[in-house]
Amino acid sequence: MIEIENLVKKYGDIKALDGLNLTVKKGQIYGFLGPNGAGKSTTILSTLGLIYPQKGRIKLFGEEVFRDGKYNEKQLVEVKKRIGYMPEHATLWEFLTPMQTLDIVGESFGLSKEERMKRARELLELVNLWEVRDKKVGKFSKGMRQRLLLAQALINDPDLLILDEPMTGLDPTGIAEFKDIIRRQKKEGKTVFFSSHILAHVEEVCDTVGVIVKGKLRVEDSIDNIKMSFLKKAGYLILLETDKPVSFDNVDWEIEKVSETKYKIKAPGDIRPEINEIVWSQGAKILQLMVRVPSLEEVFLKLVEENKG
Ligand SMILES: Nc1ncnc2c1ncn2[C@@H]1O[C@H](COP(=O)(O)OP(=O)(O)OP(=O)(O)O)[C@@H](O)[C@H]1O
């Protein structure tokens, strides 16, 4: 649905995208994860033809819409009919109701009055705003606003949804609701591409995650695979306390002696059985043995740190 090849975008001296490669396949829920300033919005704006990158290639629905500094405007207009977009800093008309909002947006897509009413009802039910359809948006919470913006992005029944930081500022309930709506989109065969700088937003809902740092995609994989490969690298942290000093010969773990009988050990996996064996063979006893596996958040931060360069 989206194929980006070697995309370069500079703002003056700032290289926002530094040869970005990214592929989003049909039916995927793709989480585009990266710290602030990594280039997420720049990628999204380029994909939609809203800014001009200097180099690279962008294909949408298999059609080339951008190549080396030029958009194919005709092609772009055509494919954009199949895209729903929710910008990062979108505003709503405060004095309108959700019904009126969707009515106006629907009209701009050329839907008839009858179609608009039907679509507005379907969408407001989907995003759980049907009950408040006639209340003014001005009084809405952040979560309600985000859900209305999503309904707006869905008005043209798009095959591809592109959402820029849709869950930022939502509380845990708001995030759970939003994820649920995204999952329902997948069930209907839609493709969803959304950005976030918060790992928890992409967890549980995305089948693929791409991590962008400094304008380059560093990893693109399932969240489980990303976690596994980093666990291997980051390792397990084991805290050991024994009743008397023990020595660790012929092992290649990183060992830090905290005191005579306390050790911090970093190893590629769960080495508790091996530790047990070593301690026991030296006639010592284990007083404490704790294993700490890095959290996914730590894995993500480590990945960001490694690529800051
Ligand atoms: N219009 C602009 N003029 C100059 N620099 C810009 C402009 N837009 C973005 N940048 C810079 O380009 C880099 C990438 O910005 P971008 O907004 O794409 O990042 P992001 O990952 O979306 O971050 P955030 O989550 O903070 O929005 C940053 O260094 C940013 O300061």
Automatic annotation (TrEMBL):
InterPro entries: AAA+_ATPase (IPR003593), ABC_transporter-like_ATP-bd (IPR003439), ABC_transporter-like_CS (IPR017871), P-loop_NTPase (IPR027417). GO terms for molecular function: ATP binding; ATP hydrolysis activity. Residues 2-239 form the ABC transporter domain. PROSITE patterns: ABC_TRANSPORTER_1, ABC_TRANSPORTER_2. Pfam families: ABC_tran. The keyword Isomerase does not apply. Keywords: ATP-binding, Nucleotide-binding, Transport. Belongs to the ABC transporter superfamily. This is ABC transporter. It comes from Thermococcus gorgonarius.
